[in-house]
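user: Please review this fold.
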Amino acid sequence: MNTLPEKEAQTVADTIAERMSIDGAGRFSVGYGQHDKIISLSHFGGMTRSTRYPIASASKFLAAATVMTLVDDNKLSLDQSISTWLPEITSEAVHLTLRQLLSQTSGLAGTQGEFYDLVQDHRMSLAQSAIEVTQRPLVSRPGEVFAYGGPGFQIAGAVVEAVTRKNWAQVFQEKIAAPLNMTHTYWTHLRLDREEELPVNETLNPVLQGGAVSTAEDYLHFLSMLAQGGEFRGRRILSAKAVDEMLSDQTSKAEMTPTGANVLANAHYGLGNWCESWDEQGESLRNSSIGFFGVYPWVEKATGRFGIIFPYIRENAFRFWPEMEKIRDAVQ
């Protein structure tokens, strides 16, 4: 944790961020806080407070939290077979669990840059998406191998829609966005081969591992909730148990396959987020959900500190990773 005085730490972070913007990162924001307080939200390169960006894999944090609200409601269980809610799935994927899907240990085909879910039709339903992605043979035994970037979040979303009888966007709005005052956040069908957003009003198959659009301020509200053990402005969004489950290492016994989608070479994985580092008891010290375009949100449960670096860099965003680490370390 940083030991610099708050003002000095912010000066250091701002200096690095200004250089990063000049060197090609363009318009972006840096924000951080502790518990219920956003300490700073700064903008660089002409960025504004209301600017929305696609956040790519930072969406996974939001998707997992949405699922966990229904676990809290006793409508879902992390360890029951998905066939409990999706009887139309009859392939060998029938026994997969939400825990395996959200921890990316399901064994589904389509990981490691194939982006099978991204090339689906955005107008199909999540239920149709789930059936399609489960028709392919599993590539590993469920629970045994971590493989990043697969289509498992689509199945989790189909489960949410089945149990609530509402579409994903509505559930997210009711359970996460509205109570957290995330007024600028919504879901799309992400395509890496185009910058233009597919029509939101006809998107029934949002890409849940990477299709959210948000602002830095909205996402800081979400991180503040996690830092407070599930509470936000006096309202409980998630149980403390649900937050602990999300941030706990779910892959301690899994084979961790390499991935070019993440700069954290030795990280493990929770539910929709990376476990970056641990204490001597194996408790995760920092959790994050880094996106392909450079959005980097993190939270430290023990200290209640949280932050986000919020750019939109379509080409090789992680060339700025050394600077992003320095910014994070300065403000934490």
